[in-house]
Amino acid sequence: MEKHKKITRNRSKGFILGLRSLLRSKLGLTGFIIFLIACVTAVFAPIIAPHNPAQINTAHMFVPPVWMEGGMKEYILGTDNLGRDVLSRVIYGTQISLLVGILAVVVSGAIGLVLGLVAGFYGGFIDNALMRVVDAFLAIPNILFMLVILGVLGPSLWTLIIVLGVTNWIIYARMIRGEVLSIKEREYVMASRSIGTKNFQIIFKHVLPNVFSSFIVISTLSVATTIILEASLSFLGLGVQAPTVSWGGMLSEGRNHLATSWWIATFPGIAITITVLGIIFMGDWLRDLLDPRS
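Given the sequence above, the corresponding structure tokens read:
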């Protein structure tokens, strides 16, 4: 009972210290607010969006933003080449970007974490085999590899998530393996081995907690990278397919109208930039917070 109370107090103290650190960090707080806004927008998109993002209105095609001549208050950010509301499409695009970014990182992180732990702790043939697989993946440009797989399997939302997940695990595996190689030689791990503790218990009790902070930081930063990859693949037509709204798809549809209707591609581009920067800011703050040398 006393041990449980102590753990609870330590967790409460850690939460308070983390909150204070966040409030002191201007970039971290900015990034957290941006990410929080993006999450709220994604969850409540049907309520926030003023129009149906897929509704075609040929009577109001290429309407400029409300502050420009010819703008309409019903379409604050204007409409696209099919008369669809740009603001509503940007709002709904948040759902896809965060869904793909987070789920793909969960897949790649889980694969990389398991392989890195096993390879670093056991070494030998397992470690050598993993490193050769990593070398093979590094020899192929990542975006090219994804284009080939999506071209063969066909583009879809869940295919995109799986492809992004199984092609981006290398960074996790290499980082986790390197840290495990150092941690497994420390005194407390050697002492645990000397009293007959099973390897499975050592990994989960001593090794995993010491690499988890680095794993969280890399995962956070990888969400930003994955959002950009999703937008790039959707822009090329191999990502999320219509009528599902995605920021990359909006960029692709608006590129042919940049000279006359710049708002079609500009606002989803701004949304991508702000969201990615917010996640990067939050990742930098987490790195400083979880760095034991800080």
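The mean pLDDT is 87. Try to locate this feature in the token string yourself.
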